[in-house]
Amino acid sequence: MTDTTPPLDITTVSTTPFPDQRPGTSGLRKKTRVFMQPHYLENFVQSVFDAIREEIGGFAHQTLVVGGDGRYYNRPAIQTILRLAVANGFGRVLIGRGGLLSTPAMSAVIRRRSALGGLVLSASHNPGGPDADFGIKYNIRNGGPAPEGVTESIYQRTLNIAAYRTVTVPDIDLDHQGETTIGRTQAIVIDPLADYAAVMEDLFDFGALRKLFRSGFRLIFDAMHGVTGPYAQELLEKRLGAPAGTVIHGAPLEDFGGHHPDPNLVHAAELVAAMAERDAPDLGAACDGDGDRNLILGRTFFVTPGDSLAIITEHAQRSIPGYRTGLAGVARSMPTSTAVDRVATALGVPCYETPTGWKFFGNLMDAGLCTVCGEESFGTGSSHLREKDGVWAVLCWLSILAATRTSVEKIVQAHWERFGRSYFQRYDYEDLDVKQATEMVAVLRTKLTTLLGTSLSGSRITVADDFGYKDPVDGTVTERQGLRIVLADGSRIVCRLSGTGTEGATLRVYLERYQKDAVNEGIEQVLAPLTHVALHLLELRERCGRDKPTVIT
Ligand code: VG1
Ligand code: CO
Question: pTM for this structure?
Answer without folding.
Answer: 0.95
